[in-house]
Amino acid sequence: MSSIPTNPAFLLDLPTALSLLAALSLLPLASLLTILLIPSTRPKTDRLLFFWHAYDALTHLIIEGSFLYNCFFVSTTIPASAKHSPGPHFLNQPERLYGAAYGTGPTARLWQEYGKADSRWLGADLGVVALELLTVLLGGPAAVYICYLVYKSSSSSASSSSDATVQAAKYRFKMWFVAIGLAVAELYGGFMTFAPEWLSGSHALDTSDPIYLWLYLVFFNILWVFLPIWVLKQGWVEVKGQFVRAALAGKKGASRKDL
């Protein structure tokens, strides 16, 4: 990481404040959805699982979705007299530059701010765009689906009928199956976002300002390390418990037959 300043020191002006407010507002929104949709009587694991995937979905679909929008629909033309860089070029357009750096809208301004810490997000970095296509188009909907399954599982568990119990179990199976898969994808995606940069000297990362380092690079990314690991841990406990219960039930059934 570069500790040599490549950008002006952090300045909390109005555009910066609005950009940070927009990004951070998704946390209370996810919390509100959790309070409204998941009863407080449900296990804390379910409530945290819903909260995390609600925040995950909002971030992928809104924040990262806006990054893709700027990559595909915001661009500037390179003058014919300018020396063009060698390819490959985004969308095979050597005469154009794409990305938030060339926009003037609110979402472009948001990514211009984050780009002070990681300049790859200012343009249409091929590796980043490829990962974000998977994240937005698959990861976002998967997180929404997990929230739906947590909600349906909670609703079905409220009933004492045997049919509702079976239905709740089916929802929980789907919930953990998708949650485990998404958690692995989140960890892989995070590694592939930063590993190429680390291995090439971290030229795009600016850690000279504490805000750029601890808020932009650490806080806005570390959640996608610790919480997917937590999901995998809880998924392990859930799957292991189901296998143990199934084994015990099988032994009881065999004992009754022997009698």
TrEMBL record:
<keyword id="KW-0812">Transmembrane</keyword>
<feature type="transmembrane region" description="Helical">
    <location>
        <begin position="50"/>
        <end position="69"/>
    </location>
</feature>
<dbReference type="InterPro" id="IPR007905">
    <property type="entry name" value="EBP"/>
</dbReference>
<dbReference type="GO" id="GO:0016125">
    <property type="term" value="P:sterol metabolic process"/>
</dbReference>
<feature type="transmembrane region" description="Helical">
    <location>
        <begin position="128"/>
        <end position="151"/>
    </location>
</feature>
<dbReference type="InterPro" id="IPR033118">
    <property type="entry name" value="EXPERA"/>
</dbReference>
<keyword id="KW-1133">Transmembrane helix</keyword>
<dbReference type="GO" id="GO:0047750">
    <property type="term" value="F:cholestenol delta-isomerase activity"/>
</dbReference>
<protein>
    <recommendedName>
        <fullName>EXPERA domain-containing protein</fullName>
    </recommendedName>
</protein>
<dbReference type="Pfam" id="PF05241">
    <property type="entry name" value="EBP"/>
</dbReference>
<feature type="transmembrane region" description="Helical">
    <location>
        <begin position="171"/>
        <end position="191"/>
    </location>
</feature>
<feature type="transmembrane region" description="Helical">
    <location>
        <begin position="211"/>
        <end position="232"/>
    </location>
</feature>
<keyword id="KW-0472">Membrane</keyword>
<feature type="transmembrane region" description="Helical">
    <location>
        <begin position="20"/>
        <end position="38"/>
    </location>
</feature>
<dbReference type="GO" id="GO:0016020">
    <property type="term" value="C:membrane"/>
</dbReference>
<dbReference type="GO" id="GO:0005783">
    <property type="term" value="C:endoplasmic reticulum"/>
</dbReference>
<comment type="similarity">
    <text>Belongs to the EBP family.</text>
</comment>
<feature type="domain" description="EXPERA">
    <location>
        <begin position="45"/>
        <end position="232"/>
    </location>
</feature>
